[in-house]
């Protein structure tokens, strides 16, 4: 089988301190990969940095949006762009803040021999999170278990944003119908893939606290997440 050529989508909002180094590490880790940054007009000039790298390297692509429109819609925008590129057979999503280490990228691609969706899981072998304050860990652990319990998703880390999808998964999911605009989009995507009968597998990752910059999660994101899991469970979504 020819080597898979992944596209790594990285949504960014104010990640100027991280993004240049991250792009370099992602390309090095994969060898044959491409990177698509979806930036929401970050005031810190993230897109200028990416734009300069993209000018010199055709494997780096930049999609700019006019303002901060949410993580979920950034991914949908990125998925559509990625699917329009030549010979893309898988798409990987990851955060820009080095919480998701590029060293795991080849493991995701390898796991596609067995699965259609591969999730980088913090909760496979106990809890593998480094440098998080205990309060943060508690909230994340609770949120994940809440989402798992309500939706019934057979995925230990269903809120993980480190996630790889085979092309056909993104083609089958009705991307225009995905409702969650913020972080709960990550649960909705896994739910939809599961409902369509795709095989979801998990690989263990160690999750690191963001290296630099600030969190973007808002109270509205949390509220949306609470409702999203019930909306999915009760079937209030367009297929
Ligand atoms: N394009 C875009 N990217 C976003 C948006 N919100 C968050 N991101 C990016 O999504 C990724 C995850 O966001 P984070 O702020 O790291 O969220 P988190 O991991 O829950 O929180 P911390 O790591 O504690 O900051 C990062 O790469 C962000 O830059 C958004 O509205 N638009
Ligand atoms: Mg983060």
From TrEMBL:
Name of this chain's protein: Polyprenol monophosphomannose synthase
A GO BP entry: glycolipid biosynthetic process
Top-rank taxon, per record: Bacteria
Family, similarity comment: Belongs to the glycosyltransferase 2 family.
Lineage of the species this protein comes from: Bacteria, Pseudomonadati, Candidatus Hydrogenedentota, Candidatus Abyssobacteria
PANTHER family xref list: DOLICHOL-PHOSPHATE MANNOSYLTRANSFERASE SUBUNIT 1
Organism: Candidatus Abyssobacteria bacterium SURF_17
Keyword Mitochondrion: no
The entry's keywords: Glycosyltransferase, Transferase
GO molecular function: dolichyl-phosphate beta-D-mannosyltransferase activity
UniProt domain Glycosyltransferase 2-like: residue ranges: 8-172
InterPro entries: DPM1-like, Glyco_trans_2-like, Nucleotide-diphossugar_trans
A cellular component term, taken from the record's GO annotations: membrane
